[in-house]
Design brief:
The complex is a heterotrimer of chains A (264), B (266) and C (273). By secondary structure, chain A is mainly α. Chain A has 11 helices and no strands. In chain A, 83% of the residues lie in helices and 0% in strands. The longest helix of chain A has 37 residues. Chain A starts with 5 loop residues before the first helix and ends with a helix. Helix content of chain B is 38%, strand content 26%. The longest helix of chain B has 18 residues. Chain B is globular. The chains are: A mainly alpha (264), B alpha/beta (266), C mainly alpha (273). The interface between A and C is large, with 61 and 64 residues. Chain C: This is Nitrate ABC transporter permease.
Chain lengths: 264, 266, 273
C-alpha cells in the first residue's frame, strides 16, 4: 500500500468515495420534492444545519455532552484497567469476582439511569458522568482481566529473572501485554459511552446534544431534528476514527506481531 | 577455582489433583567460576524444573541452591536466563534495543551506560543493525541471539540457558553453539546449559552432568577433555568426541531404562 | 518431546493444578459476598435504604412480581422483541455479508460506507422512530435491527475474507459453480465468524431492546423499570433490574453455548479481537 502509484491512489479515492457519493445523491434527488412531513428534502436539512448549530448550541449542548462523555469514559478506562490488573493478577480474586462481574456486564447499561436517578435525581453533570463511567467500565474491566490472565508465563518469568520490580513489571510487562485486550474493551466501551451520553440526556429536561434533538422532535422541528441526527452520526464516526488513530499508533507492535505469526 | 553455584540435595515435588509427583529427588552438583557446564538428560528428566529452581523461579521442596555465597529463594540479581521459547521471552512491544536495555534500567544504570552496554552486547551477537527492529521482525535464530544479548548485557555471574536452541533449525543451531562458546571465552561468564541434545552437550561443555529419569538425580559427571578450541567440523569428527558422545549416549539409554546410581553413603 | 516432558513443562509453568469445583465454589462465594454486601450496606445505614433497599427486600418484591401477569407479559414482550430483531439482523447481515464479501469490487466500494455507517450510534435514530412509530414495538425493532445488523455484517465480512485463497483456487480449478463455492468453501470458513457475530449481536440487541422500552416507552421490562422508578417503587425497580441482568446473563450463556456447539468441529476457537 505504501508504494501506490498515482493511478492506484486515484483508484482508491474513487472506490472510497463512489458509494457514499451515490447514496448522498440518491437521498438528495429522491427527497428533492418530498412533501412527507418526516422526510424533508435533504436540501432543506443541509440549509437548516448552519442555522441550527450556531455557537450557542455548540457551547451549551454539544461540547458539554462531549466533555461528560470524555470524563466518564476516562474514569471508566482508568478504573477498568486498574481493577482489571488487580483482579487479573490474582487467580483467587478472579474466581471470586467472575460470576458477579459477568452479571454486572450483562445488565444493559441504560437501566443504570433509573437506578442512579433514585439516588440523586437526574439533573446536573455528576449523575450523567456516573452513568457513562458505570456503563463503560465493564467491557474494559473484563477484557483487562482476560488480557492479564492470558499474559505469557515466559514473559512473567523473564521479568522476574531479570529482577524487574513491581512497578516496572506492572508497567512494562502486564499493562503492555494486556493492552490489545484493553483496547478491545475500550472500543466496546466507546460505543456504549456514546449511547449513554445521548440517552442520559433524554432522561429529564436538560441541555445537551441528546436533549436538543429530542426537543426538536417534540416541537416537530423536523429538519432541525434531522440535522441533530446527522451531527450525532458524524460525532460517532469522528470518535471512532479518533479511537482507531490512537489504537493504530499504540498497538503498531501488535499488528506486526500478528502479521508475523500469520506469515509463519 | 572458587565455587560460584552450589546445588545441594535439591528436591522438588509437585502436589495437586490430590496426588504428588516427585520431579527431582536429590540433585547435588557444583559449578566453578568461569566454567561451561552442560546438563543433559532423557526427556521428562525434570531439566526445566531443575533450571527453574536454580533460577529462583520455582521454590524447591528440599535442599539448597547457593549462588555466589547467598541462598537462592527468588530470582537472584547475578543470574540471567535464556529461555527455550525465544519468541515468548522477548517483549514484542519493545524494540530489540529496548529489550536489551530494560533489565539494565531496572538495575539503575544511566542512559549512556545502558546504551553502551546494549550496543556492546548487540555487537557481540552480531545484531547491531537490527537494534531498532521489533523481535517479531527477526528470524528465530536472530530472536534467540537477542535473548542472548540481553543476558550478557545484564553481566550475570551465572548464565542459565534452558534448551535455548531446541526450536531453531540445524544450521542456525550450529552457529548459535559457536556463538555461545565464543562469548564464554570473551566474557569469562559462567554458563549452565541445559539441553536434551547429547552432541550439543559434548560439543559445548567442559563437563556434562547426565541426569537420571524421574525422580531425578545426577547419574554421572562426565568431564569433557576435548581441546579448548572447538569447531563444528573438526571437533565433531574427532575420535575423542565420538567416544564421549557414545559414553553419554549409553548413560542416557541406561537412564531411560530406569538405571540409577547407588544411593550415596552405602 | 514425549508426553512426560510436556507434562513436566506444563506442571512447571502453571501454578498448582486444582480441581474443577474450586472456581465454581469461589464464584459462589463471590456471589454470596455481593448479596451480603447489598444486604448489609442499607441495614447498617451506610447507604440510605430509601435509595438502596436491602437485598432481602428486593427479593421479596421480586417474588411478589413473579406471581403477576403483568410481569410475565412484559418479559414476553422484551424477549419477543429481542428475538425478532436479532433474527432479522442475522438474516440480513449474513445475506449482505456473503454477497458483498464474495465480490471484491463490491467489497471495495462498500468498505468506506460501512465504516461510516457502523459507528453511528443507533440511539440517534430514537427521535425518528418515535415520530414514525410512537411507543410501539416497531420502534424498538428498528433500533435493535440497526444496531445488531452491523455486528453480524462485519463478522461475516471478516469470515468471507478469511477464505484460504488456495482452497478457493482449488474450487475454481475444478470448475465449481458460484453457488457451490459459497456452499462448500465460503460458508464453512465464515461459519465461526457468523457465530461470533451472533454472540455479539445477541447482547447488543438486548441492550437496544431494553433501551427502547426504557426511553421510548415501548412495552416490556424496560418500560416497567421506568414506571417503577418514577412512581417511587424502589424495591421493585431494583428487582426488575436484577431480572434484566439475569436475562442478560442467560443470553450470554445461550450465545456461548451456541458458539461452542457450532465450533466443536473447528480446530481453533478464535478470540474475538
Amino acid at each position: 500500500m505504501a508504494h501506490l502509484g498515482a493511478g492506484g491512489l486515484v483508484k482508491r479515492v474513487l472506490t472510497t468515495l463512489a458509494l457514499p457519493a451515490v447514496l448522498v445523491a440518491a437521498w438528495w434527488f429522491a427527497s428533492a420534492h418530498s412533501t412527507s412531513f418526516f422526510w424533508p428534502p435533504l436540501r432543506t436539512i443541509v440549509e437548516a444545519f448552519p442555522e441550527t448549530w450556531t455557537a450557542d448550541p455548540w457551547l451549551h449542548d454539544v461540547l458539554p455532552s462531549l466533555a461528560r462523555l470524555a470524563i466518564g469514559y476516562l474514569i471508566a478506562l482508568a478504573a477498568g484497567a486498574g481493577l482489571g490488573v488487580a483482579i487479573g493478577s490474582s487467580r483467587t480474586l478472579r474466581e471470586i469476582c467472575e460470576p458477579v462481574l459477568e452479571f454486572l456486564r450483562a445488565v444493559p447499561p441504560p437501566v443504570l439511569i433509573p437506578v442512579i436517578a433514585l439516588f440523586a435525581g437526574y439533573t446536573g453533570w455528576t449523575s450523567k458522568i456516573i452513568t457513562i463511567a458505570l456503563g463503560c467500565v465493564w467491557p474494559i474491566l473484563l477484557n483487562t482481566i482476560e488480557g492479564v490472565r492470558s499474559l505469557d508465563e515466559v514473559l512473567r518469568d523473564t521479568a522476574r529473572s531479570y529482577g524487574l520490580g513491581r512497578v516496572a513489571t506492572l508497567w512494562h510487562v502486564v499493562l503492555r501485554g494486556a493492552s490489545p485486550r484493553i483496547a478491545t474493551g475500550a472500543r466496546q466501551a466507546l460505543s456504549i459511552g456514546v449511547i449513554l451520553m445521548v440517552i442520559s440526556e433524554l432522561f429529564g429536561a436538560n441541555r445537551g446534544l441528546g436533549a436538543a434533538i429530542v426537543q426538536f422532535q417534540r416541537g416537530f422541528a423536523i429538519p432541525q431534528m434531522w440535522t441533530g441526527i446527522i451531527l450525532l452520526g458524524l460525532i460517532g464516526v469522528a470518535l471512532s476514527a479518533l479511537f482507531r488513530l490512537v489504537e493504530h499508533r499504540a498497538l503498531a507492535w501488535y499488528r506486526g506481531l500478528r502479521q508475523a505469526e500469520r506469515g509463519a | 577455582m572458587s565455587v560460584i553455584l552450589d546445588v545441594d540435595g535439591l528436591a522438588k515435588t509437585y502436589t495437586g489433583h490430590g496426588r504428588e509427583v516427585e520431579a527431582i529427588r536429590d540433585l547435588t552438583f557444583r559449578i566453578h567460576k568461569g566454567e561451561l557446564v552442560c546438563i543433559v538428560g532423557p526427556s521428562g528428566a525434570g531439566k526445566t524444573t531443575l533450571l527453574r529452581c536454580v533460577a529462583g523461579l520455582l521454590g524447591a521442596s528440599g535442599g539448597t541452591v547457593v549462588l555466589d555465597g547467598s541462598t537462592v529463594t527468588q530470582p537472584p540479581p547475578g543470574m540471567a536466563v535464556v529461555f527455550q521459547e525465544y519468541g515468548r521471552s522477548l517483549f514484542p512491544w519493545l524494540t530489540v534495543r529496548k529489550n536489551v536495555e530494560l533489565p539494565l534500567r531496572e538495575k539503575g544504570l544511566g542512559r549512556a551506560e545502558r546504551t553502551a552496554k546494549a550496543d556492546a552486547a548487540l555487537d557481540a551477537v552480531g545484531l547491531r543493525d537490527s537494534a531498532d527492529a521489533h523481535p517479531w521482525q527477526l528470524s528465530g535464530g536472530m530472536q534467540q541471539r537477542v535473548a542472548i544479548a540481553r543476558a550478557i548485557a545484564y553481566e550475570p555471574s551465572v548464565l542459565l540457558m534452558d534448551e535455548p536452541f531446541a526450536a531453531v533449525d540445524a544450521q542456525t543451531r550450529a552457529d548459535l553453539e559457536d556463538l555461545v562458546r565464543r562469548l564464554w571465552h570473551q566474557l569469562g561468564v559462567t554458563v549452565l546449559f541445559v539441553t536434551h541434545d547429547i552432541d550439543e552437550s559434548v560439543y559445548l561443555g567442559q563437563r556434562v552432568l547426565v541426569l537420571s529419569n524421574r525422580p531425578t538425580v545426577v547419574l554421572e559427571d562426565v568431564p569433557i577433555d576435548l581441546p579448548d578450541e572447538r569447531d563444528q567440523l573438526g571437533t565433531r569428527s574427532s575420535a575423542r568426541f565420538a567416544e564421549l558422545r557414545s559414553h553419554v549416549y549409553e548413560l542416557i539409554q541406561q537412564a531411560k531404562k530406569g538405571h540409577r546410581p547407588e544411593p550415596a553413603g552405602v | 518431546m514425549t508426553t512426560l516432558s510436556a507434562l513436566a513443562g506444563r506442571v512447571a509453568t502453571r501454578p498448582a493444578p486444582l480441581t474443577k469445583s474450586r472456581p465454581a465454589a469461589l464464584g459462589m462465594l463471590g456471589v454470596a459476598l455481593a448479596v451480603g454486601l447489598l444486604e448489609a450496606l442499607p441495614r447498617l445505614g451506610i447507604v440510605d435504604s430509601r435509595f438502596l433497599p436491602p437485598f432481602s427486600t428486593m427479593a421479596r418484591s421480586l417474588a411478589g412480581q413473579l406471581t403477576t401477569a403483568e410481569f410475565w407479559t412484559a418479559t414476553g414482550q422484551t424477549l419477543r422483541g429481542w428475538a425478532l430483531g436479532l433474527a432479522i439482523a442475522m438474516a440480513a447481515g449474513i445475506a449482505a455479508g456473503v454477497v458483498v464479501g464474495s465480490v471484491p469490487l463490491l467489497r471495495a466500494l462498500t468498505a468506506s460506507t460501512i465504516e461510516f455507517l457502523r459507528p453511528i450510534p443507533s440511539v440517534a435514530l430514537i427521535p425518528l422512530v418515535v415520530l414514525i412509530y410512537g411507543s410501539e414495538m416497531p420502534s424498538a425493532l428498528v433500533l435493535v435491527v440497526y444496531a445488531s445488523f452491523w455486528q453480524v455484517l462485519v463478522q461475516v465480512l471478516y469470515g468471507v475474507a478469511d477464505v484460504d485463497p488456495v482452497v478457493r483456487d482449488t474450487a475454481r480449478s475444478y470448475r465449481f459453480s458460484r453457488r457451490a463455492v459459497v456452499r462448500t468453501v465460503v460458508w464453512p470458513t465464515a461459519m465461526p465468524y457468523v457465530v461470533t457475530g451472533f454472540r455479539l449481536a445477541a447482547s447488543v440487541a438486548l441492550i437496544l431492546e431494553i433501551t427502547a422500552e426504557l426511553i421510548i416507552g415501548v412495552p416490556g421490562l424496560g418500560r416497567s423499570i421506568g414506571v417503577a422508578q418514577s412512581s417511587g417503587a424502589v424495591a421493585e425497580t431494583y428487582a426488575l433490574v436484577l431480572v434484566v441482568g439475569v436475562i442478560g446473563v442467560l443470553v450470554n450463556v445461550l450465545a456461548r453455548a451456541v458458539e461452542r456447539r457450532a465450533l466443536r468441529w473447528h480446530t481453533s476457537v478464535r478470540g474475538d479481537l
